[in-house]
Amino acid sequence: MHPKLAADEDGLARLLEEVRRHAAGALGRLGERAVVPAVEAPEPERLPEEGAGLAGALAAFADRWEPALSASAGPRYLGFVTGGTTPAALAGDWMTGVWDQNPVSSLDGAGQELERETVGWLRELFGLSDGHHGAFVGGATVSNTVGLAIAREWLGERAGVSPAEDGAGALGDVRVLSGAAHSSVPKALAVLGLGRRALTGVPTAAGREAVDPAALERALREADGPCVVVANAGTVNTGDFDDLRAVAALRDRYPFWLHVDAAFGGFAALSPAHAHLVAGLDAADSICVDLHKWLNVPYGSALQLTRRPDLQASVFRNAAAYLGPLGDAPDLVHLTPENSRRLRALAAWFTLRAYGRDGHREIVDRCTACARALGDAVEAVPGLRLLAPVRLNVVCFTLADRPDAERLAALADRVAGEAFLTPTVHDGVPALRAAFSNWRTGEADVRRVAAALREAVPHV
User: Which Pfam families does the UniProt record give (predicted)?
Assistant: First the structure.
C-alpha cells in the first residue's frame, strides 16, 4: 500500500475527527458568512505528483477553495430553489460514503430494499396511493426525463410499436402540451429523440403561469390522438400550480399521458394551508419531485414516480449475465439511466426517520411564512413591486421604475453578501426571485434580506 494511504488508514479515526471539527466550524459560521463572497476562485494548479495525505488535502481545500465558496447551504441563499442539508441528512450522507453501496441489484440487495422503504415513506409524505412506484435519480431534470421516457413508451404502446426498441422515429410526430414547462422538459425531449419542437405551449390563465384548462382542451382536441401533457405543481418563476384535478378530468375525453412536474411544489402536500394546491396529484401517470430542494438532503437526489413500472423497465432494462432477471419486481438497475450509483436514499431515510412528517411540515410552513413576509416587505420598499402573489415559497418582484435586466443585476449584486437572488422574466418583465426552502431560514433572515433591499434600491 502506498505510504500516504497506509498512514491515513492507520490514523483514520483521528483524521475523521479533524474533518468533523472543521465541518462543524464551517457550518457554525454559515449564517454569518457572506452568501456570495467577493472572492475570485483560485487559478487551477497542476496535478501533484506526490500527495499530501488527507490532512494536507483538507488544509489545501480550506486555504484555496473554501473562501470562494458560496453559503448555498445557509439560510439566505434564496436563488433557484435550493435547500440545505438537515443535520440528519448530513449524517446520512456521511454514512452513504462510509458504506459505499451500489443499490441497484437484488444480488446484493439490502441497499435496494432500503431505497424501496424510503420511496414508500415519500409516497406517504406526499399523500400518494401505492399505485405509484419509483426510484431515486440525480435531480429533477433526470426525473422529468425518466417520466417522459415512460410516456414515450406509452405512446408507442398505443401505436403498436416500442420506441425503446425501434427508436423514437417509430412514433412519428409527437405533441407534448404544457402551460409553463420548466426548461428541463425541452432538454429531456431532446435527449429522448422527440425533439424540443414537440413541446407546444398552451395559453395560461390571465396573469398566471397556470394552464388554462379550456385552452388545454382545445389543444387536446386539435392533437387528434394520444399525446403527453406536462402539468406543473409549482412553477419556478412564481410558484404557480395547474389545476391538477381539472387537467386529469380531461382524460375522460382525450387520450394523454399526464406527467406532473412537482419538483418543489409537491411539498405543499405537507401543509394543511397549501395541500389544496396539489389536489389531484395522485391521478398523474408520472411525477417528478426534487429532494435536494425542500426535503433538504444533499445535492444529487430526486424521486421519480410512475403508475407504469412495466413500461419503465421496457425503456431502462439492462441485460447482462451478472445482473438479476427482470422479473415482476425489477431491480433498480432496470428502472433508471444509471447502472451504478450511490445509495442516495440513505440521506433521505435519515432525515425522514429523524424528523418525520411533523418536522418536515414545520419546515414547509416556516418557509412559506418567510416567503409571505418577504412579499409584504417588498411591497413596503419604495421602488420595488411584486409581480405575482406569493402562493407558496417563491417571491417574484421587480423594480417599480425601469425594470431592465441590467439594473436588476446591479440590485442582486448589491445584496449578494446578505442574500443570493436569481434573475428571471415574468410576463415579459425582467425580475428577481427569492425561493425559500432551506431548513435554517427564519424571520430574522427575512428582516436582513428586506433591509439589504431597502438599502440597495436607491443605488441602482
Answer: Pyridoxal_deC (PF00282)
pLDDT grade for 12, boundaries at 50, 70 and 90: very high
Measured distance CA(290)–CA(140) in Å, rounded: 5
Residues ≥6 apart with Cβ < 8 Å to 184:
140, 141, 144, 145, 261
pTM of the full predicted structure?
Answer: 0.96
Q: Nine-digit cell at 184?
A: 428541463
Cα(438)–Cα(30) distance, rounded to whole angstroms? 13
Q: pLDDT digits over 229-260, tens only?
A: 999 999 999 999 999 999 999 999 999 999 99
Give SS3 for 354.
helix
SS3 10: helix
Tell which CATH classification among 3.90.180.10, 3.90.1150.170, 3.40.50.10890, 3.40.640.10 matches the domain 26-51+62-87+356-460: 3.90.1150.170
Total H helices, total E strands in the chain: 15, 11
pLDDT, tens digit, for every residue of 161-211? 999 999 999 999 999 999 999 999 999 999 999 999 999 999 999 999 999
Tell me how far CA of residue 226 lies from CA of 157, 223, 368, 434, in angstroms: 10, 8, 38, 38
